[in-house]
Specification:
With about 180 residues, this protein is α+β, with helices and mostly antiparallel strands. The protein has two domains: about 10-80, Alpha-Beta Complex (Outer Surface Protein A, domain 3); about 85-165, Alpha-Beta Complex (Outer Surface Protein A, domain 3). The chain has two helices and 13 strands; from the N terminus they run ββββββαββββββαβ. The protein has helices spanning about 60-80, 140-150, and strands spanning about 10, 15-20, 25-30, 30-35, 40-45, 50-55, 85-90, 95-100, 100-105, 115, 120-125, 130-135, 160-165. Strands 11-12-7-13 form a four-stranded antiparallel β-sheet, with helices on one face. The model has no long low-confidence stretch (mean pLDDT about 90).
Length: about 180
């Protein structure tokens, strides 16, 4: 049995969970998230806790038990607290700005890069180089942050690019001088 899957999930105050068969809807102060569990799992709600259980000990059911318990837990955390990713632009002339429902990045190309901000994600730019992205859905947040980062992945020689907060770029030595 999954060690993670059998742990109960505490439901914080202000979060409403509706279990309609295998469909789970979680509502909180930051939004609403929905997910559908596979047939091999069950959900039981009682006394401010939620338990994801197994119907039968099949190989697929055991494999998905811990995964879906973590997904439901992330939904609850997301609607009550929100998830956050911080990106930093490192390079001469690299800037970011939020204009309406899009983010505009100047990354050394001949044109500015404009990306549409998806529904449910909020973006804030601090000092033109620090990007703070918040969302209730952890997977949407990570996907959007990865799409932004893909425009300029940090390179190992000068360390320029879009970095996650706290990320360290292993630097390489450049070409050695002529002999």
């Amino acid at each position: 049995m999954s060690r993670i899957g059998k742990l109960p999930i505490k439901i914080p105050s202000g979060v409403d969970i509706t279990c309609n068969g295998l469909d789970i809807t979680v509502k909180g102060k930051f939004g609403t998230l929905e997910n559908t569990l596979p047939d091999s799992l069950t959900v039981e709600q009682s006394d401010g806790t939620l338990v994801v259980g197994l119907k039968s000990q099949t190989r697929q059911g055991r494999a998905l038990h811990g995964l879906y318990r973590t997904l439901v837990n992330n939904m609850i955390i997301g609607v009550s607290e929100q998830f956050q990713k911080n990106l930093t632009l490192k390079g001469v002339g690299y800037r970011a700005a939020v204009q309406g429902k899009s983010i505009v990045l100047n990354l050394g190309y001949s044109h500015p890069v404009e990306m549409e901000i998806p529904e449910g994600i909020s973006v804030e730019v601090v000092k033109n180089v620090d990007i703070i992205i918040k969302a209730c859905s952890k997977d949407q947040l990570g996907l959007f942050a990865a799409k932004i980062r893909a425009w300029r992945v940090p390179e190992p020689y000068k360390g320029k690019g879009i970095l996650y907060a706290g990320e360290i770029v292993n630097r390489k030595a450049g070409k050695s001088g002529k002999k």
